[in-house]
Design a protein that fits this description.
The chain has 194 residues and is of the alpha+beta class. The chain has 3 helices and 8 strands. Helix 1 runs antiparallel to helix 2, helix 1 (3-17) packs parallel to helix 3 and helix 2 runs antiparallel to helix 3 (52-80). The protein is elongated, with a radius of gyration of 24 Å.
Length: 194
């Protein structure tokens, strides 16, 4: 293999590796697929054309196809909930201390439990003592909590993006729609587990 071809492979690899940013863990399959596709495509292109042009075309086509295949794999894993997210909220439970939202619902106590499987369970104790639970999906990206609840029956779905900051056992949320302050607790109190 000529020196030019090796340099082309190195350039493509460096270019694709440069795509690995703060969201790389969400697109790992696409990045790996792109790099692997570029290498494999370059080899095939060189084998067919025996020149730099064939190598470059093969590397470009291979990188594109590899990225598409890897990205589709990432999307499938995310849809199935198999993406193991390692974030500082997973496995924690919080008691709402303060909630500032227009038309705030009446409640006595409210708790948020961030499950490791990307499920957010909100447990609300109503003024009459009734316990109501809601489950949504969540993910964390760069100190932003993204909560998603698809439409259910006549209830519309929604997506919430809220910046958060953890200080000791307190977490603060700030979004255009609401602000909140929560206190970390070890587990739900007995009345919230009913």
């Amino acid at each position: 293999m000529s020196r030019k071809i090796v340099l082309v492979f190195m350039a493509v690899s460096v270019m694709l590796a440069g795509c690995e940013s703060e969201t790389a863990s969400e697109h790992r399959g696409g990045i790996i697929g792109g790099v692997a596709g570029a290498g494999l495509g370059g080899l095939v292109g060189y084998g067919i054309g025996r020149n730099t042009t064939g190598t470059l075309i093969g590397a470009g086509v291979g990188a594109g196809l590899g990225y598409i295949i890897g990205n589709e794999f990432d999307k499938k894993k995310a849809r199935e909930g198999d993406v193991a997210q390692s974030n500082e909220l997973a496995g924690t439970t919080w008691r709402v201390q303060q909630l500032n939202v227009p038309n705030a619902p009446a409640y006595k106590e409210m708790y948020l439990s961030f499950q490791p499987n990307n499920q957010l369970v909100t447990t609300t104790i109503m003024p009459d003592g009734q316990v109501v639970r809601a489950t949504e999906t969540y993910r964390v990206a760069d100190k932003t909590l993204i909560i998603n609840r698809p439409a259910q029956g006549d209830q519309p779905g929604y997506v919430i993006n809220a910046k958060y900051n953890i200080s000791g056992d307190t977490i603060s949320f700030d979004s255009p729609d609401f602000t909140a302050q929560l206190l970390r607790i070890d587990q739900l109190p007995t009345q919230a587990r009913a």
